[in-house]
Write a sequence for this structure.
């Protein structure tokens, strides 16, 4: 196991197109997080899953964004009708949560850089 | 709203100089605190973390940080930087609320440039 992986690493799309990103967390990590990072800023939380349940969504996550984690393993983040403002690095992280009380550190993937032209 | 503030956007040091990067957060409850580092072309990596206990925590590569609860601060330090420490450093806070969240709130980052 080599850590969190994301695919693709780069995506260039035209405005109005739909895109989908994939994240494979560290195996047996039950929590999976999506963040977005723009130039000169720290990552901003988008949403997270505990196993297959999506438990929290940021108000940054407009209705054009949807995330899934159907079997509690990998996750996908889809952006419909992309806009230029969606251009950013999309980061995935995973962690192990025990008994709903203890969350250990999050391990980040390399990110998917989205450019909307 | 909860926020994390890093005092410097860009710090330039010569090798062997001492480093201190400031981080303050605004949340009155119990928190976990983290420093992540992002080397050029690489992904975010955990540098060190504070969960509880001794407020002075040591991380990898000679870094340490001190949690001062009364000041809501978690400053990162290193006595002598190396050229290889050139990277972007992010402070992050996680609120500890039972059975909720776990999301990290990041500061805007500090870019460190170390001159050989």
């Amino acid at each position: 196991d080599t850590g969190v992986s994301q695919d693709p690493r780069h995506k260039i799309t035209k405005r109005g197109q739909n895109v989908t990103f994939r994240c494979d967390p560290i195996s047996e990590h039950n929590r999976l997080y999506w963040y977005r990072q723009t130039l000169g800023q720290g990552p901003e939380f988008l949403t997270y899953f505990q196993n297959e349940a999506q438990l929290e969504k940021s108000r940054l996550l407009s209705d054009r964004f949807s995330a899934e984690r159907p079997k509690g393993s990998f996750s996908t983040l889809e952006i419909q009708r992309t806009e230029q403002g969606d251009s950013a690095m999309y980061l995935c992280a995973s962690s192990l949560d025990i008994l709903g009380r203890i969350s250990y550190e999050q391990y980040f993937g390399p990110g998917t850089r989205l450019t909307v032209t | 709203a909860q926020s994390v503030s890093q005092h410097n956007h860009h710090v330039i040091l010569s090798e062997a100089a001492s480093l201190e990067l400031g981080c303050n957060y605004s949340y009155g409850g119990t928190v976990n605190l983290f420093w992540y580092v992002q080397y050029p072309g690489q992904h975010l990596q955990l540098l060190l973390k504070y969960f509880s206990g001794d407020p002075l925590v040591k991380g990898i590569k000679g870094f340490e940080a001190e949690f001062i609860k009364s000041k809501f601060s978690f400053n990162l330090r290193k006595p002598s930087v190396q050229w290889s420490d050139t990277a972007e450093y992010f402070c992050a806070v996680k609120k500890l609320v039972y059975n909720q969240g776990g999301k990290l709130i990041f500061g805007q980052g500090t870019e460190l440039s170390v001159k050989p």
Chain B touches chain A at residues 4, 9, 32, 34, 36, 42-46, 49, 90, 92, 94, 98-109 (CB under 8 Å). DSSP finds no helices and twelve strands in chain B. The two ends of chain B are 41 Å apart (CA to CA). The mean pLDDT of chain B is 92.
